[in-house]
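Reviewers of the previous submission asked for a worked example of the structure-prediction workflow described in the proposal, so we include one complete record here. The input consisted solely of the amino acid sequence. No template or homolog information was supplied to the procedure at any stage.
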Amino acid sequence: MADIVDIAVSAGTFQTLVTAVQAAGLVETLKGPGPFTVFAPNDDAFAKLPPGTIQTLVQNIPQLTRILTYHVVPGKLTRADLAQLGEVISVEGSPIPIHASNQFEVKNATVLAADIEADNGIIHVLERVILMG
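From that input alone, the workflow returned the following structure tokens.
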């Protein structure tokens, strides 16, 4: 198996996320032992953001880091784990509501693929970037 970063790179559909993680200096953390649960927006999710948002964030590393760490939860939580919890606290420190009754949703984003195993955690693919607040 591979770590979370290697899986994201090899998938080919997380180029924007990988670039953002590199810009924020979080690669080594996400290659670390973890375990981590990562809510990973795909490239289409980032494309839904208003034009210029990504460029603005890459120039504001503290804000970019806050948004990225809002997509990470300590521990290895499967869809079943998340459904039982109903809410988790992100590495950033804010709560993330989980809805897993009909569709599996993280805050306001639908999970496109759940429970992608990595050596140091688990990935759930999102169709949109989740924002705090």
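The chain has a mean pLDDT of 95. We consider this example representative of the routine output the project will generate in years two and three.
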